[in-house]
């Protein structure tokens, strides 16, 4: 059977509602699967990288299994790409891109800055993204006409703030080393020009950018499942997400997220040296 790759304009209101409902149901299922394991004693942790440390826990696997079950039931014709279970083909031209726990190192350390990532892609564009932090109870979504957040203390509209200069910007990244030695040197050129640099928030940093609390997120070594949901959320909030050369970063690599075009251009220039 041939597949059709839809564009945003191809999606009718009913399909958009179906996608949003499935995304929230998948995130709810992930919450239920993960929370019994968070800060629990005896958490089982395996290492996926024999040459380093790339942890995966029983919570990662349980959450992706739960999300896949929801999506298979609600959206059976869509493809699924997940960090732990790989790719399941589909025929609709839409792909769900899942990271059951983005920030497993933080999860196993007990910090509440990890998150569940859910995105819907047409293959060359993210049309919807969702970032969920189950322990805090916050959820951020963007795309398909939505740019909102909700949590135990209320919610509202997502909007990146209007910071235009590096001197006024707050920059975030997950790892101080940022990638290769050259990547770290490029990051340092940006960090030396901004007002404040903070580390360690994984996907939560992208949510903070969309909510208007920070201005830049710069990372390297990402996969599609790390960045697609943040792309959907940040673009809906008025921000920009590209690679370090200003091109698409849909499939991972080195990512630059910025609140405004002016700030994005300044960060690109600093990264390039």
UniProtKB/TrEMBL annotation:
The keyword Cell membrane does not apply. Its cofactor is Mg(2+). Pfam families: Inositol_P. The keyword Cell membrane does not apply. GO terms for biological process: inositol metabolic process; L-histidine biosynthetic process; signal transduction. GO terms for molecular function: histidinol-phosphatase activity; inositol monophosphate 1-phosphatase activity; metal ion binding. It is an enzyme of class 3 (hydrolase). Pathway: Amino-acid biosynthesis; L-histidine biosynthesis; L-histidine from 5-phospho-alpha-D-ribose 1-diphosphate: step 8/9. It catalyses: L-histidinol phosphate + H2O = L-histidinol + phosphate. Keywords: Amino-acid biosynthesis, Histidine biosynthesis, Hydrolase, Magnesium, Metal-binding. Its EC number is 3.1.3.15. Mg(2+) binds at residues 83, 99, 101-102, 226. Belongs to the inositol monophosphatase superfamily. This is Histidinol-phosphatase. It comes from Roseivivax marinus. The lineage of its organism: Bacteria, Pseudomonadati, Pseudomonadota, Alphaproteobacteria, Rhodobacterales.
């Amino acid at each position: 059977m041939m597949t059709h790759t839809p564009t945003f304009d191809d999606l009718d209101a009913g399909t958009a509602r179906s996608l949003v409902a499935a995304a929230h149901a998948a995130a709810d299922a992930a919450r239920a699967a993960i929370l019994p394991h968070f800060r629990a004693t005896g958490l089982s942790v395996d290492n996926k990288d024999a040459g380093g440390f790339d942890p995966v826990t029983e919570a990662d696997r349980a959450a992706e299994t739960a999300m896949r079950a929801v999506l298979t039931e609600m959206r059976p014709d869509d493809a699924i790409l997940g960090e732990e279970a790989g790719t399941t083909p589909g025929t609709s031209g839409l792909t769900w891109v899942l990271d059951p726990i983005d920030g497993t190192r933080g999860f196993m350390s007990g910090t509440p800055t990890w998150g569940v990532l859910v995105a819907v892609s047409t293959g060359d564009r993210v049309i919807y993204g969702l970032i969920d932090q189950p322990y805090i109870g916050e959820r951020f979504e963007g795309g398909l006409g939505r740019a909102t957040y909700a949590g135990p203390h209320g919610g509202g509209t997502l909007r990146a703030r209007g910071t235009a200069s590096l001197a006024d910007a707050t920059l975030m990244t997950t790892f101080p080393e940022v990638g290769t030695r050259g990547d770290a040197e490029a990051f340092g050129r940006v960090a030396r020009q901004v007002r404040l640099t903070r580390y360690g928030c994984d996907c939560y940093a992208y949510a903070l950018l969309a909510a208007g609390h920070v201005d830049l997120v710069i990372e390297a070594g990402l996969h599609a499942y790390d960045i697609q949901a943040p792309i959907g959320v940040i673009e809906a909030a008025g921000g920009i997400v590209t690679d370090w050369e200003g091109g698409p970063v849909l499939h991972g690599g080195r990512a630059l997220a910025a609140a405004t075009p002016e700030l994005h251009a300044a960060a690109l220039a600093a990264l390039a040296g």
